[in-house]
Predict the structure.
Amino acid sequence: MAVIDFAKTSFPDGAGWHLQIGDNLDAAAMGALLLLVNERNKPAATAFQNASAPRQVDRLVLSAVYGDVARVMIEHALRKDDFVDGHPFPEETLGATLMALFHRLFPGSSINDVRLRLEHSPALFTSDLQAAVKIFEDF
């Protein structure tokens, strides 16, 4: 994770965060994922600054970020042809990380079923994902 000034990047100045995610599912997860937080977006930057002892507003922001990052990661995985049930991704790779997240959020669901839901009913997929991450549940 890095806190940066989005005005000095190609990202929209008003965005709160951006997840950079690599294309190679066999790459090390630590090098394939980078959450960028916009220092100009005070609610987002402050929420991460206070993450060890968050206020209620910080917890709300962090919940929204977690939900959005999970959505980006799962959508990214589902768009990959080699992200299929039973694919043996090596430990600590991006593919293994995405597979673990998928199974935590969609236990008992096949990758193909969730992929079809994303393709044919993206709004329902998004609602399913919000429920799976328990967005705003502790408030």
